[in-house]
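Holo prediction — AHM.
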Amino acid sequence: MTINRNILTLDEFTIQQMRMFPNATGELSTLLRDIGLAAKRVNVEVNKAGLVDILGDAGSINVQGEDVKKLDVFANNQFIGVLKHGISCAGIGSEEMDDFVIFDDEISNNSKYVVVFDPLDGSSNIDVNVSIGTIFGVFRRVSKIGTPCTKDDFLQAGINQVAAGYVIYGSSTMLVYATRRGVNGFTLDPSIGEFSLSHPNIKCPESGKYYSVNHGNFFQYPENVRKYINQCQRKTESEGGPYSQRYIGSMVADLHRNLIKGGIFMYPETFDKPGGKLRLLYEASPFAFILEVAGGKATNGLERILNIKPNGLHERTPLFIGSKNMMDELETYLRS
Ligand code: AHM
Ligand code: MG
């Protein structure tokens, strides 16, 4: 087998990036490597899920009142495990946990970062072999290094993230992460078990042809959102249309496609869920960071997602996110 030495692995890439900053300690590179390791372990289980009866409900209900699937539990444990045993993370916030977890040991207390994550998003798709994903955001702590981290370290506006990313377990498994310097995508090469740089410097096209929304909820959306959706369906060729509707029900997969191809994703408030469904801290905020670095936009309908300071780990938000020009058009409807 010939090995293409022009392709960088995730570790090589993060080390190369670190060398551009003479004062960097390497903690962020280590953190990303830890996340990559957990993702590889989760990927192995996702791939063999149909074979080993790991599918199905774990028999418990998570803190959101939803059924917990076995893979959710597995993924949560993997991410907590690597972050707790690593040297870069002082604590975590996870969709699967009631509250923030403060590691409080000597190495963790001396770590610079805290991490928020949804270990396995799109869990309703696990049983049916459809893409699922992990979402994560990294904050630099505001509390004093050398002490246990605190809630304030987590409850920061998304703009303060130093990095955010996702893993998509799909036809290929990819890890995509953003820092302020750019968004880069790595595809898992199963032959060597390494994430390899496949999508350098991702930019979200300013316009796209995809709109992603749960049409089943159409009559529950606010009127201005319904008007915009109707407009998506009426686009003529000269207006950049016709748009195609694509909605997987795994936001990682929907947003990955829209990031690469251009598009808009919406999970508005509904009569049943007036605060929206998606979680601000570990779903909306990391994606808002990624899309903005890539040139796109993200709002809750009124305000830029990255400016919102969460009040709690599981706070929900409406979410509108995607290509810049499509978001600009949507905003003319939302303002009306
Ligand atoms: P989850 O965290 O329970 O998996 O829910 C989040 C998912 C998103 O991935 C997806 O976009 C959305 O829920 C789909 O919800 P709906 O089925 O209401 O359209
Ligand atoms: Mg989720």
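READOUT: The mean pLDDT is 92.
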